[in-house]
């Protein structure tokens, strides 16, 4: 076998729910929280991808919702992968998250690729209504350890 089997991972799950400010300052905080959670628990989901996609979800929530109501970051670590949700007060679904835009993003624009990244890099993604707005989420599967003989 090329390293620990998937079933050798801890079977317990862990989850966090954290209120973040409705400002751009929430993005680096959310990135750091996800990286710390995945690293300290030695979780098998890819930290870099989780951090990038979390930043996209939080940035979208801050940019596309009005007001100063805090947004919430929910991180759930499971033996099979992780799920990250961002809750915001706007009930409108995010555009083109589950149904791709028919045209490619303009390569000269700074915006317009976040949802494309989430669709392309996650194992699944979506959104759902909540009592106070919506939750937008993505999942990443556990990546098996690579065998390193050194």
UniProtKB/TrEMBL annotation:
Any Pfam family matching the protein: HATPase_c_2
Annotated Histidine kinase/HSP90-like ATPase domain residues: 24-139
Record keywords, A-Z: ATP-binding, Kinase, Nucleotide-binding, Serine/threonine-protein kinase, Transferase
One GO MF term: ATP binding
PANTHER family assigned to the protein according to its UniProt record, in alphabetical order: ANTI-SIGMA-F FACTOR RSBW, ANTI-SIGMA-F FACTOR RSBW-RELATED
Name of the protein described by the UniProt record: ATP-binding protein
Organism field: Streptomyces griseorubiginosus
